[in-house]
């Protein structure tokens, strides 16, 4: 893959040099330099054809538009890569924090549910301790629904008892 880029880079450098030389010839054009001008124009056409051949070899390469914006702004395109990595690291830290928070929440939830529903939680732990089958996963979901209903029923009972 690097060879393709090296090949393209070589052709681009030749093309840029031919354009530079053409600019010199045109800026100080003399009728006697017509042959040199024609030769440079032919080199430019050939250079464009060579670049087009390289393009066909690199059709599967995509460059983010932001890289071109960096170049247009006179910034180093390698800064784009650096900033993308920095953003990815920051997002990774953020997601890691959320995962840690969810793990803590799960642990606290299991502790509290174990106090309120010890038998159900023992069943839950026995199923979670091994690879559950699809029926057991369905049963876990049913247990989750039942826990929520029991919690609501307990809250309602507590409210009724408080009003009595």
Secondary structure: elements and pairs:
Layout: H1 2-27, H2 34-57, H3 65-72, H4 77-116, H5 118-128, H6 134-163
Helix pairs in contact: 1-2, 3-4, 4-5
Q: What do you see in this structure?
A:
This is Mediator of RNA polymerase II transcription subunit 10. Belongs to the Mediator complex subunit 10 family. It is found in: Nucleus. One of its GO terms (biological process) is positive regulation of transcription by RNA polymerase II. One of its GO terms (molecular function) is transcription coregulator activity. The chain is mainly alpha-helical. It has 3 domains: 60 residues; 54 residues; 48 residues. 85% of the residues lie in helices and 0% in strands. The protein has 6 helices and no strands. Helix 1 packs antiparallel against helix 2 and helix 3 packs across helix 4.
Q: So how many helices?
A: 6
Rg, alpha carbons: 35 Å
| Number of beta strands | 0
Mean pLDDT figure:
83
Give the N-to-C terminal Cα separation: 80 Å
Strand content: under 5%
Report the order of strands and helices.
HHHHHH
Low-confidence spans: none
Give the overall form.
rod-shaped
- Helix amount, in percent? over 70%
Overall tally of domains: 3
Major sheet description: none
Query: Which structural category fits the helices and strands?
Result: mainly alpha
């Amino acid at each position: 893959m690097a060879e393709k880029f090296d090949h393209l880079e070589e052709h681009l450098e030749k093309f840029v040099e031919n354009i530079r030389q053409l600019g010199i010839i045109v800026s100080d054009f003399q009728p006697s330099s017509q042959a040199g001008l024609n030769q440079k124009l032919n080199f430019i056409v050939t250079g464009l054809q060579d670049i087009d051949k390289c393009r066909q070899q690199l059709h599967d390469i995509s460059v983010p538009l932001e890289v071109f914006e960096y170049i247009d702004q006179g910034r180093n395109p390698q800064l784009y890569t650096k900033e993308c990595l920095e953003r990815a690291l920051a997002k990774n830290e953020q997601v890691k924090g959320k995962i840690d928070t969810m793990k803590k929440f799960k642990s606290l939830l299991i502790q509290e549910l174990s106090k309120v529903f010890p038998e159900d939680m023992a069943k839950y732990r026995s199923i979670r301790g091994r690879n559950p089958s699809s029926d057991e996963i369905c049963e876990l979901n049913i247990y989750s629904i039942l826990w929520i209903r029991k919690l609501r029923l307990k809250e309602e009972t507590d409210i009724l008892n408080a009003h009595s």
